[in-house]
Amino acid sequence: xxxxxxxxxSPHVLPVQTYLAVAGAxxxxxxxxVAVSFVHFGAWNLVVAMVIAATKAxxxxxxxxxxxxDNKMYLSIFAGSVLxxxxxxxxxxxDTLRRADIYETVGHPIRPNAIIYQQTDSTQTSxxxxxxxxxxxxxx
Amino acid sequence: MSTAVxxxxxxxxxxxxxxxxxxxxxxxxxxxxxxCAIMFMFMLGGFFATLVRLELLTPKQDWFEADTYxxxxxxxxxxxxxxxxxxxxxAAIGNFVxxxxxxxKDVAFPRLxxxxxxxxxxxxFVGIYSMISGAVDTGWTFYTPYSTTTxxxxxxxxxxxxxxxxxxIFTGLNFIVTVHKLRAPGMTWFKxxxxxxxLYATALIQVLATPVLAITLVxxxxxxxxxxxxxxxxxxxxxxxxQHFFWFYSHPAVYIMILPGMAIISELVATFSHxxxxxxxxxxxxxxxxxxIGFLVWGHHMFTSGQSELSSMIFSFLTFFxxxxxxxxxxxxxxxxxxxxxxxxAPMLWVFSFLFLFTIGGLTGIFLGALSVDVHxxxxxxxxxxxxxxxxxxxxxxxxxxxxxxxxxxxxxxxNEFWAVISWALVLVGFNxxxxxxxxxGTRGMPRRYYSYLDQFQxxxxxxxxxxxxxxxxxxxxxxxxxxxxxxGRPAGANPWGGLTFEWKTxxxxxxxxxxxxxxxxxGPYDYDKVKAESTFFDYAAGRExxxxxxxxx
Amino acid sequence: MSMNHAAEHPAFLEHHFNDAEQQRxxxxxxxxxxxxxxxxxxxxxxxxxxxxxxxxxxxxxxxxKELDVWLGTVNTIVLITSSLxxxxxxxxxxxxxxxxxxxxxVFTLLFAxxxxxxxxxxxxxxFHVGQLPGKFYxxxxxQGNNPHIFFxxxxxxxxxHGLHVLGGMCLIGWLIYRTHKNRFSSxxxxxxxxxxxxxxxxxxxxxxxxxxxxxxx
Lengths: 140, 554, 217
What we know:
By secondary structure, chain A is mainly α. Helices cover 53% and strands 0% of the residues of chain A.
């Protein structure tokens, strides 16, 4: 239950140079990411920007937030939050990017002359048209 | 002659006064306050349920307009889910027993705990305000685009749920830290009672999933108030996205509801079989497994929503994995009872009804998780019956078992066993009459959320409505004898059931600081074979204090 | 901690903890669990961002040109520096240097205020030209489908982040007051450490928001 620091009588103090070096690296990376954004890599721009952002985030977490020195429990909680966030985004995008991959479903009204279609499709002349007013699976 | 004693100096009367109660930081008092609040909400939600069943007694519209009916089932669902089941076992019973069971003086953050109760009450009041000011009719799921266009009070109800989410997060956060940091000396992870494993897994879901619900509801409110267009197809938004957001919380939330129920069952099975739990580690880790897998299956609520077929298949496949840890638990409970010395006290009766009903609910869940079957059964009464078998047949049965089990600890007094059996029997019969018929209705094509139906469904619907009255009667009887027990019950003594976990080592009701002497874990929570010789407990059938040996080796 | 042998029961130790170490570790664990909930709260918005950007890559590219890269860069530098001063404030308290700690906290507060002032100018410009979320969107200069979605997400994410900056400022103000009142020492500086963690997370989220909105390539 106790962390490795339990035996220590005083808090774990990092030298000032460590903080300054980390802040310096963060500022340099900020300049780099802005500069790189003006070069056109296509889809790789996003990858480069995210890799730099992740590097910065790791620096902040490890040094400013002391994860490198603290009980590894905290590191695993933080990693866990990122993992579950990734699950959320990946599974959601499995749907949003792959709709109508297998077969295109087109909505058909069960009763084409129902009142709802007569009210919304005032511009359409034919009443027996089998085209739904809203195509529910249209790709975005 | 009874040797059981009632602890005169206890947390209920020390310190005295209303102000001391309202500002208390004692987890036991907060648990009791939660218990009162959720029981009120259970009555309110049950009241709406009986109105729904009343309307469904006959095929035609006879008591309520269609819109009123929509509001009734929405209020029933929203109250039961957000105000009753989710806080029920963790916040009420869990708050009371968790620190006791791990031998702590309190939860890690007592002020946060009290804040959690006040936030719950605030959320409840906002919810009640919403009901008065034009109750929502969207169903408890608030699906867009209907929820952004209906003219009922969606914003105030979502605000209520948003507020309630904080109360849930605070409870979960408190439990995680308490379990990690405040265990008594000697209580290793594998000496913890299984109740704690269940509550811990629940707490993990509470802190991981609830924030996503919060942001979802904020987006819904923004959509409704300012038309930001994220969920509005007319503005390039996607209503199905709302369902992803909603179910990323609400599917794991289903396990917030059932895991604590399973936790209670693990305690009760071991105590009333007087036997070590079969496969302790499997039961413990299966709680964590359910919590984890619960995050991977939310899309099975959306098979017919227009999500991609590929993700439907993946979600369907992953859904079957939930059956494995759930099955492990059920088999281990049954194996625990095998060759045990089972005492058929009221809490154990609730365990049996849990095992019976939860197994039906779980298996029908497997049917619904199968993609092709679900397309057929989606939005029918089959689904309604399924989740009532899991939520009510599972969680509520476990909650009632837990209430009876810890009632003597909470109040120091015993309820009437005769009436407990009567009420249990009425609830079990009434429940099956009400909901088993709905499986049949569903397979025959009766859709959910309609106030009228075809004449051919009348016998089944009528049977179901009559069942709901029996069910209600069972709960009313229970309410009467449980409240009676608080004032007039016989003193229960410290350990009426012969339990080995820490909460039975302190007096009933427990003192303000939980334990007179700090407990140390020397044996596992269910080591009945090791400790039977030297301990005694108060046996109600015999009406006296008996050595454990007598009952174990009959 | 050093308080263990200094006093049997220090004033800051609550009754249900055995010692200061247990109390400090509980607070820290609780804070990390809270940060986890924060990550997932923002996570919902990141998910919405990812989906709408994947659906409308060209519109996102065109819309992002309406944001001022230089103001964004300035704000990133300001926030990173405020994280540095926050870390140094904690370090000063660890060394019992109360005056230094207050100085660093005041700097952190000022940087936070600078961030919000810059954000105010960015927002007011967008309000002025009608680059607003959803149905309030009146700007016409962006090519692509539904550009109002970009601004819906932009305002939701930076707005929620801004609220966190505001909340952080209140907490830092409270810390300055408490430090001034001699409530903290090298034996007990848990609140400063906890607010520090919160503040670094606010910085960390901005580190992702900045390239996602201002630097779409």
